[in-house]
Write a sequence for this structure.
């Protein structure tokens, strides 16, 4: 069974109408979640906690969409451990 991992992260944006972080070093990584429902719950909690700051924004990244298990490995993956 394929895992459907989701990353929840956020931080202060330079401009609320864009998605450019003010300081990438200050990005808050909430966590990686095994399904969309739990990622959404974490996202909602952080979004509601920072609702009074228009420059704060949280996102859900669908990590499972970044990796195609059927595609050949990239050169960096072939370096091994």
């Amino acid at each position: 069974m394929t895992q459907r991992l989701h990353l929840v992260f956020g931080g202060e944006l330079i401009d609320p109408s864009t998605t450019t972080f003010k300081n990438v070093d200050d990005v808050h990584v909430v966590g990686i979640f095994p399904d969309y429902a739990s990622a959404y719950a974490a996202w909602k909690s952080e979004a509601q906690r920072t609702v009074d700051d228009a420059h704060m924004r949280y996102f859900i990244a669908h990590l499972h969409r970044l990796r195609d298990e059927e595609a050949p490995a990239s050169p960096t993956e072939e370096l091994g451990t």
User: Anything to note?
Assistant: The longest strand covers residues 6-12. DSSP finds one helix and three strands in the chain. The mean pLDDT is 86. Residues 12 and 53 are 9 Å apart (CA to CA).
